[in-house]
Design brief:
Layout: H1 20-30, H2 36-43, H3 47-59, E1 63-68, E2 71-76, H4 92-105
Antiparallel strand pairs: 1-2
Helix pairs in contact: 1-2, 1-3, 2-3
Length: 118
């Protein structure tokens, strides 16, 4: 996993505009049935960080977790404002829609789950 302060191929620190919290939120938006391990892989963070960020998002009301059998399913409250003072009038749903528009034109695959046989 590459951290925000890691040195990239050209000797410069690598960084991104998209925070880990947003990576987690976008992964859940694309794959509401994803496991925490799958969310972590997609966001390129540890499972512990993914748990913490999902808890942050749940506590703030952006994500709701439901039990579906033995698994969790996540639902996003798209009507909440972004937690950014410069974008306070924009909604989470607007940002997700923008990301989905981009994802529709590129290849954004979830890491595959290993099939289990009962």
């Amino acid at each position: 996993m590459e951290s925000a302060g890691a040195v990239g191929a050209f000797g410069l620190r690598s960084w991104t505009f998209i925070t880990n919290h947003l990576q987690v939120l976008l992964t859940v938006a694309r794959h509401p049935e994803a496991t925490v391990a799958e969310v972590a892989r997609a966001a390129r963070i540890t499972e512990r960080s993914a748990y913490r960020m999902l808890a942050d998002l749940q506590q703030a009301g952006y994500v709701r977790r439901r039990k579906v059998g033995r698994h969790n399913s996540y639902e996003i409250n798209a009507n909440l404002p972004l937690r950014d003072p410069t974008l306070e009038d924009e909604l989470v749903g607007d940002l997700i829609a923008l990301a989905r528009k981009k994802a529709d034109t590129s290849v954004m695959e979830m890491p595959s789950r290993q099939a289990t046989v009962d």
